[in-house]
Design a protein that fits this description.
alpha/beta, Rossmann fold, seven-stranded parallel sheet, oxidoreductase activity, oxidoreductase
């Protein structure tokens, strides 16, 4: 059957990179999607010595066709996608009195809409037991007005995860948003590695314990 495979969308040096490492250490092959080739090169150099296969592609996930094509190529290469982890969001330091509608829609296209694109592309390669995970944030419930679009993105993507979970559950595929209720830091409870461990725990729960949101409060 081969090793299970995780696709990490919005791969970078923070939580998503830690998620890739956590799943690689558990024996998953890894596919990375990012807009930055240098970031991908660094992650590949870190992951390959762990003894897993690593695929990667550069694409802007708001370019629907490019993102679909990249995810489809990952699935066609391995024949399976066991976990799809979605990490992208836009941080735009504008309050709601200065944020324009086009800016808000641009940010939502990245932080929410791109999840639809990659899930739809991945679905033909997912089967019962496959999982979708999303890096959530307390900004969904406690937005900072100085970056108003971020809270909208995180509330929207969590809502979309709930819908995806309900739509896919009859096929044995589940979705979860891991809501990080703290600020990422280099030390303490909210390091990227600790958050990645929370993602791992959320994804590997049994069906009986499944919920489409898991809070991580450290």
């Amino acid at each position: 059957m081969g090793r299970p495979m995780i696709v990490v969308v919005g791969a970078g040096p923070g939580v998503s990179g830690s998620v890739a490492r956590r799943f690689a250490d558990a024996g998953h092959d890894v596919a990375l999607l990012s807009h930055d080739q240098q970031v991908l090169d660094a992650l590949v150099a870190d992951l390959e010595p762990r003894g897993v296969a690593v695929g990667h592609a550069v694409a802007d996930v708001t370019d629907e066709q490019a993102a679909r094509d990249a995810v489809r190529r990952f699935g066609e290469h391995t024949g399976r996608i066991d976990v799809l982890h979605f990490n992208p969001s836009a941080y735009r330091e504008k309050d709601p009195l200065s944020l324009t509608v086009p800016e808000l829609l641009e940010d939502v296209a990245l932080g929410v809409g791109a999840l639809l694109t990659v899930v739809q592309a991945a679905r033909p390669f997912m089967s019962a037991g496959s999982r979708i995970s999303v890096t959530g944030s307390m900004a969904a419930d406690e937005p900072w007005e100085g970056a108003a679009s971020l809270g909208v993105q995180k509330a929207g993507v969590r809502n979309l995860v709930h819908s995806l979970d309900k739509a896919l559950a009859p096929d044995g595929i589940r979705a979860v948003s891991v809501t990080v209720r703290g600020t990422l830091a280099r030390e303490g409870a909210f390091t990227p590695d600790r958050v990645a461990e929370a993602v791992w725990a959320a994804v590997t729960r049994g069906e009986a314990a499944w919920t489409s949101e898991v809070p991580y409060a450290g």
